[in-house]
Amino acid sequence: MNEIAPTHVTESAMPMCARSPDGAPAVDPGPDQALCARAPIGMLCELTHRCPLQCPYCSNPVELERVNVELTTAEWQDVMRQAAKLGVLQIHLSGGEPTARKDLEDIVKVAAEVGLYTNLITAGVTLTRERLAKLVEVGLDHVQLSIQDVDAENADRIAAYKGGMKKKIEVAGWVRELGLPLTINAPIHRQNIHNVGRIIDFAVEMGAGRVEIAHVQYYAWALMNRAALMPTKEAFFTAAKQVEEAREKYKGVIVIDAIVPDYYAKFPKPCMGGWARGIVNVTPSGRVLPCHAAESIKTLTFDTIKERPLADIWLNGEAFQAYRGTSWMKEPCRSCPRKEIDYGGCRCQAFALTGDAANTDPACSLSSLHAQWQAVAEVESHNPNVPEFKYRRIGGAAKTPQSHNVS
Amino acid sequence: MAETSEPRSAPTRLIVAGDTVLALPRHIKLRHDEGRGRWIILAPERVFNPDDTAVEVLKLLDGQRSVNSVAETLCQQYQAPLDVVTTDILAMLQDLTDKGVLVKA
């Protein structure tokens, strides 16, 4: 960090994977000031849950949405217009694999026209240079490309997709040739954590301006595969040291964002920067969520964009109001001096492990479940018998795990 | 290790000095957020909130003027000592350059 803090510019980092042409079009009536003051900055759009990769730590829900329930082109375009009017600044087009939608260009075009900064979060393996050029032409601002490892064989095994890594290197080249900024996103876990230093070197070599060392967060698919993914505390600290060294070495060359696994953190993470505070998520079928994992909280009900306007859901939707701010908190959160720093941690994790989303996240040392929760990571990460991956696929959670080389 | 199709020279950190000419790259967008009544800088997965001074400086970075020239304009405008202004904006511009918000024009 800079000691001579240039106080003239403050920064809001967007939590997780979360933009504007130089001027909004002349026909734009302009956003509503009162609404914007409370509006989300970023919107994560899961355009589809279809994906050619099968990464066992996928952030999508275990119950994947099928193609026949996906929003239409016109519906997604309307979501973009509503988002801009509400005051959203950046959109993250994700999935699944967003390029699986043949109308991605039509969605990006409208998003760019209404002044949203557009970020494509892609695995890259199904992209062509022509398609990427077309996306740039209609206004795409940034590409975040995922990699599974730097060692191609291991990367392809983790994603269960042969030849994936080779294709990704090609795509990274196209992004730079077309003049777009590139972020490399690398989910980190037990089976690639030894390569953190090389992953950062790789991102620099690819010409990326930013790299995310994104330790896997253990929900949904990753929670199911936790015993195959959890790194040891020792491995985590070695990787953290490598990140610090790389930050020094590559200062001014690449921005390194590291997302730590909360099993090894001192305090729980302020998930999404606080529930319903800065980010909104729209699923393939149009359900509007405060976080991409929120549907795992079975006690909540969610509105859909098909039945209610985005602004109304954001401001008044039951799921959004449930844990917004701090008034819902119980002890020890309620009287905690950190309550507006970490917001009691992650609601989904609290629900999954305690049965009540309003409880303190077990990641917090003040949770009665904390010691037990940490012990699980300790035991699993040191287990020499690493279980096989349960690969991410529709219905995959129920099937017996298969080995790699699924074509 | 993966190989790139074309070898590239290793990128290095740009050290901002008085004669450096800076500009915002195409993908960094300085714009006025009407709804919130403030200026913002949109960057890959980041939003920066510049104060009035920063906005003034960034608007002067037209890809032609050096840091020194920008400092001179500001010190006339605000009737502040040149060395104070220069030190202040150099620190800010170096930080923004390190974060990829500014590049050499």
Secondary structure layout:
The complex is a heterodimer of chains A (407) and B (105).
Chain A: E1 9-13, H1 33-36, E2 42-46, H2 73-86, E3 90-94, H3 104-113, E4 117-122, H4 129-137, E5 142-146, H5 152-159, H6 164-177, E6 182-188, H7 196-205, E7 210-215, H8 220-224, H9 226-229, H10 233-249, E8 255-259, E9 279-282, E10 288-289, H11 310-316, H12 318-322, H13 339-342, H14 347-354, H15 370-382
Parallel strand pairs in A: 2-3, 2-9, 3-4, 4-5, 5-6, 6-7, 7-8
Antiparallel strand pairs in A: 9-10
Chain B: E1 22-23, E2 29-33, E3 38-43, E4 46-50, H1 52-60, H2 67-78, H3 82-98, E5 103-104
Antiparallel strand pairs in B: 1-5, 2-3, 3-4
Summarize it.
Chain A is an alpha/beta fold.
Q: What would you say this structure looks like, in words?
A:
The complex is a heterodimer of chains A (407) and B (105). Chain A is of the alpha/beta class and 407 residues long. Chain A has helices at 33-36, 73-86, 104-113, 129-137, 152-159, 164-177, 196-205, 220-224, 226-229, 233-249, 310-316, 318-322, 339-342, 347-354, 370-382, and strands spanning 9-13, 42-46, 90-94, 117-122, 142-146, 182-188, 210-215, 255-259, 279-282, 288-289. Chain A has a 9-stranded mixed beta sheet, with helices on one face. Chain A is globular and about 50 Å long. With 105 residues, chain B is α+β, with helices and mostly antiparallel strands. Helices cover 36% and strands 19% of the residues of chain B. Chain B is built from 3 helices and 5 strands. Chain B has helices at 52-60, 67-78, 82-98, and strands at 22-23, 29-33, 38-43, 46-50, 103-104. Chain B has a 3-stranded antiparallel beta sheet. A two-stranded antiparallel ribbon of chain B has the order 1-5. Chain B is globular and about 35 Å long. Chain B starts with 21 loop residues before the first strand and ends with a strand. At the A-B interface, β1, α1, α6 and α7 of A face β2, β3, β4, α1 and α3 of B.
